[in-house]
Amino acid sequence: MNKKLKLLVSIGVSVVLGTTLLVGCGSKKDATENGKVKLEIFSTKSENKTIMESLIKEFQTKNPNIEIKINAPADPGTVLKTRLAKNDIPDLISVGADSTFGTLVDANVLLDLTNDSVISNIQKPYLDMLNGIAATDDGKIYGVPYATNADGVLYNKDVFTKLGLQVPKTWDEFMNVSQKIKDSGQLPFYLALKDAWTGMVYWNALASDLTPSTFVKDKKAGKTNFAATHTEVVDKMEKIGTLAQDDILGVAYNDANAAFAQGKSAMYLQGNWAISEIKKANSSINLGMFPFPASNDASKNNIISGIDVLFAVSSKSKHPDEAKKFVAFMTEKENAQRYIKDQFAFSAVKDVVQEDPSVTDVKESFKTGKIGVFPDHYYPSSFDTASLIQGFYSKKDKGEFMKQLDTEYDKANSKQ
Questions:
Q1: What is residue 11's predicted lDDT score, i.e. its pLDDT?
Q2: Which residues of the chain, if any, have pLDDT below 50?
Q3: Which residues, including other chains, have CB under 8 Å from residue 114's CB and lie 6 or more apart?
Q4: What is the pLDDT of residue 304?
Q5: What is the set of domains in the chain, with CATH numbers?
């Protein structure tokens, strides 16, 4: 999920953007050698390097005049910051659709891909997600959404079968299922708030489905606040806390994965990224995933999904056509399918579906476009919502929590 990257880049990239713009264009050398066009793709996700190298090799076989080198450093935020300061922009950048991407757009270092033919191959909800991340996108598209992730509710199918439970579609059904699990002597949820970011899983699901879609825009304009729009979110987060183990602040993510794998709870509030780790701990677990039913209006309950990987082309590349040719290759159905199978991801490419049986219950949401956004992708980068949520579960003071949300958001927004 590249959560560390968001923090790393937000600290330093904005400092160097002025330098980037002042240096000017044309400093990048015409990267050709022995008749071959040489391209670099900078990836902020080291976990996908092996599958990327495999796909790059296949692309090069089909395009022998193009040679691509992937650069996936261990500390991508720092490296990218330095590259920007030197006006040494990679031809291709693979990054998540968060504040890092927004910063690159605002720095005017990415190519406008709005009218590129590859865009017609991408699901509209993910294209819509790009709007509003940057301050200066003007509705244009500067990256091609590719691999996506989703959070929701992981559940033990065997427990549900044993207790005669159905996948809930509304909040009340969700709470009824949780109570029946609790009455059977089992834990409904296992929470991992020692790692603060895990609280964002259910914050994002609740806030996405229950609050106005214009909240971030209105909040920045001073027209609304968290207290006026997020009371139901906080009330339901408080309820979730009462249905988990006693030491929710003492358990870390990896330990919670293992606990759920061992059957210590019937449900687990996490995303697709946790499934592989859970199966490593218990390969025989029979688990599924369903959309978080935040509302009692089932039509409002989306699968909450975000763009984990998108491809952007440098506006300073000497070979934009070859770079775009690689992006088009990656979005071919067969290649996109290979990628999401390897990475256990979902896809922004049309008609590319994650086939693992554990996510059968979310297929319909993806198929019909019932896809909600991660609200925190649109918050100011220095707004540490996760730590505030962690503090809320510690102090259990809703009024103070609401005040902190507004105060800290406004502080972060003033730094933008």
A1: 37
A2: 1-29
A3: 140, 141
A4: 97
A5: 3-148+306-360 (3.40.190.10), 150-304+377-414 (3.40.190.10)
